[in-house]
Amino acid sequence: MKKEKLIFFVWISNKYWRTWELLEAFSLETNSWKIVDKLISNLDWYDTYKTNLVSIVPLDENNKIRYPNHNEKENWLKILEKEILKLSPDLIVLFWKQVYDFVSKYSLINKEKLIFAYHPSYIRVYKRNTQEYYISNLVDKIKFKLN
Prior knowledge:
Distance between the termini: 20 Å
Largest sheet: 4 strands, parallel
CATH class: Alpha Beta
């Protein structure tokens, strides 16, 4: 059964796991993404699509994971925009302030479709007692924006 609305969830980049295998966007192998999974389970009337602003794992000269630089984000933004154009989501949830700020500033995406959300790691580590509130509040924001 086709659901009526499509929601994109966007995070900064992929991640390596302990064995150096590349994890998919929002992998349940990470504890933070268990929060996102719970969030998505509360949106069962909607189709969801999980992706990254940067679909690689940026490494520094010592093969340590680093944040993507501006040029990497700019190049991958073009690919993200093509994904968005092709799939035409009704709403785009951007996790992490850097992702939201970058996409809203440099993208041609309709700003009315964007929602900022704190990164689940931040909630999990620093606001552990507010996880349920974080999920329900974000679900309410999404539903409000889609109606």
